[in-house]
Design goal:
- By secondary structure, the protein is of the alpha/beta class.
- The protein starts with 7 loop residues before the first strand and ends in a 27-residue tail after the last helix.
- The chain has 10 helices and 10 strands.
Length: about 300
């Protein structure tokens, strides 16, 4: 097994986690077991899934097949908006824990703002607080929350989110949101950390440009004998963020974890920061949820 000296991050309640994790967004269930098994083999110790991905069961299967001590792996999943509400979210935990095969989930977060259902969103977060107090989860948080929604949530609840998982890559680095996180002790966690949202198929337009092909990223990568993905992940690690790259290719799974062998200079970090366009490539966080988006999450 390959191991890599990836830094450890500490959440505002003392829970620790590796700076780099392994994500399974859009990974079909039949591929998930093999992909997660490989990720664990090469050294990943943080797995990120979600009820809406439809592959929690397979993540759990791969974890149970491995010989890695359960306490060495941080498992994170997300509650989908169709399960928002206090009692509904408590039940969503039961569904997720059964599929994952875990009595305790390390990190449980709300997947979306669901702007037109925000009262239910608040109730869902209160349920996360209850699960945290009962020891059934070790940390709680949110995903895709802008500053104004974080402020609303924090005004209405007691526990400051331990993390906020958001679209974050060189073309959309959200410096204002990151500053708010630092002010309040919220860990910034990046989905699409290598800009996958800028190039993989999706409903967000055909005129996107891939950050993988950015000349600045490629120049820095060539200078370090690294891949563009490795440069972006090193950027996240050096700036203290949690990043969750996703791949089902064994070589890229390994490469994405292998970022400890070089260091980006202050100038290189600044050049990457300067690529921010201020425009997301993914879905609008404030979008309203209609009936088609509130699809039911199957029972365990």
């Amino acid at each position: 097994m390959t191991t890599n000296p990836i830094p450890t991050l500490t959440l505002n309640n003392g829970v620790t986690m590796p700076a780099l994790g392994y994500g399974v967004f859009q990974t079909p269930p039949q591929e998930t077991v093999d992909a997660v098994t490989e990720a664990l083999r090469v050294g990943y110790r943080h797995l990120d899934t979600a009820a809406a991905y439809g592959n929690e069961r397979e993540v759990g299967e791969a974890l149970q097949r491995s010989e890695i001590d359960r306490g060495d792996v941080v498992v994170e999943t997300k509650v989908w908006a169709s399960d928002y509400g206090y009692d509904e979210t408590l039940h969503a935990f039961e569904k997720a824990s059964a599929k994952l095969g875990l009595e305790q989930i390390d990190i449980l977060i709300l997947h979306q703002v669901a702007a037109n259902l925000f009262d239910r969103t608040i109730d869902a977060y209160r349920a996360l607080e209850r699960l945290l107090a009962d020891g059934r989860v070790r940390a709680i948080g949110v995903s895709n929350f802008p500053v104004a929604r974080l402020e609303q949530l924090m005004d209405a609840t007691d526990v400051v989110p331990h993390l906020n998982q958001v679209e974050l890559h060189p073309y959309h680095s959200q410096p204002g949101l990151q500053a708010f996180h630092r002010e309040h002790g919220i860990l910034t966690q990046a989905w699409s950390p290598i800009g996958g949202i800028t190039f993989y198929p999706g409903p967000w337009g055909d005129d996107r440009r891939s950050v993988m092909d950015d000349p600045t990223i490629r120049e820095i990568a060539a200078a370090h004998g690294a891949t563009p993905a490795q440069v972006m992940l090193r950027w996240h690690v050096q700036q203290g963020r949690s990043a969750i790259p996703k791949s089902v290719n064994p070589d890229r799974i390994r490469q994405n974890l292998d970022v400890a062998g070089f260091t980006l200079s202050a100038d290189e970090l600044a050049r990457i920061d300067a690529l921010d366009t201020g425009t997301p490539s993914g879905p609008e966080p404030e979008r309203e949820f209609d009936a088609t988006m509130l699809f039911p999450i199957p029972e365990a």
